[in-house]
Sequence to fold (145 residues):
Amino acid sequence: MAERIQAGFTLIELMIVVAIIAILAAIAIPAYQDYVIRAQVSEGLSLATGAKAAVWDFMSNTGRGPSNNASAGLAKPQSITGAYVSQVDVTGGLITVSFGAPKANQKIKAGTLLLSPVTHAGSIDWICHSKTIPGQYLPSVCRKS
Fold:
């Protein structure tokens, strides 16, 4: 009796594998794009760290928020930039991070992230929020529970 040796995969088996890979890619690509946008927004929080320290220092010395970047001891708003952030502006203690840089994703371009100081007996808590950036792209510290 002659036995036949299997030489490879059938066409149906290969098509099933391709279909499975396509389904996984359809799920993974949008999740990855959301992750990339959240990483771009988190750059804004990183750039705002220096402004938060400057605002805290100004408020601890004067008891009020700085009127602009210069009074807080910061560079001009247009000078504080990143790959995705076009400027970091301080006005009355409120820090506004604008995402208008050329590399910013279209879903956050022209969006702003706001950091509001709230004083508590010698300390400052920062409330992070945005009206122009969808909640799914905000860092977890900025999302409302």
